[in-house]
Amino acid sequence: MTHVLLTGGAGFIGSHVTAALLAAGHRVRVLDSAHPAAHSGPPPAEVHGVPVLRADVRDREAVAGALRGVDAVIHQAAMVGMGVDLDDLPDYVGCNDLGTAVLLAAMARAGVHRLVLASSMVVYGEGAYACPADGPARPPARAVADLAAGRFEPVCPTCGRDLTPALVDEDAVLDPRSVYAATKLAQEHLSAAWARQTGGSVAALRYHNVYGPGMPRNTPYSGVAAIFRSALEAGVAPRVFEDGGQRRDFVHVSDVAAANLAALDREVPGFRAFNVASGRPATVGRMAAALADTAGGPRPVVTGEFRLGDVRHIVASPARATAELGFTATTDLATGMAEFAHAGLRG
Asked: What is the spatial distance between Cα 265 and Cα 119, in angstroms, rounded to a whole number?
């Protein structure tokens, strides 16, 4: 049995991780700031019977107290999503990066040397691609003019040919293309530096598109699945950006919780990153259609709209997590969406 401090433990993913830890026989201490981006209503007083210590990870005194008697930390607390505009930038950096720095410094002082970090696939930027003529290719950010003209697929930076998407693994070049992505990569760098200086262990779990019961409703910080679900509940057709052909790996939150357990149970040396993905990619258009079919709502509308900072395709190789953590996702998209279509949301 491990005594775990779980930051962000009252949030969407955190509450599922809390339940999984308890079911596995671990002791859990939950710290959560009840940030309005994740909690639109009053924060819960407890999660699955565990009292919630309401505090911000930037509060040095609160974090020091929360670490007393703890063996390991699972760090879920973060501001997520694309946000509204650049006015969000200080909040992202403060919550995600300063918060992580305060936590790591407190862990070093307390002698806690095991960390499971909630990272994200956004650190990659675009996924992996291959050009039929030039081989592996790393396309630059898509030009506004191309997006506005409906040219959504990235092309080879050498010859201009269409690229074929491939699986991205953990050794890929990291190229964050949004404020949120930059802060998640900074969390990884800070954690890696901490591991080197303390001899600590960091498993950075790069979550792909997480969905499932308890997602926050339609806010600027919500995931795309929750945005579509909220539209269907209101009797409105989900609005699919671009042409709906952008590929993602949608991973059920129960699998994400299982990945956290696996990372906790198999301590890794130093810093090690792991994709947390289903290994079964789908287009955003297909996901929206599956959700609409199951919910009995209106068919999705493909709008051609786009957001700067979005990437076209990001599909992961889950091989490292399987080989080194013994983790394999088990929920397929059809089963997960059938449940999610009628599951409760937050807010």
From this structure: 18
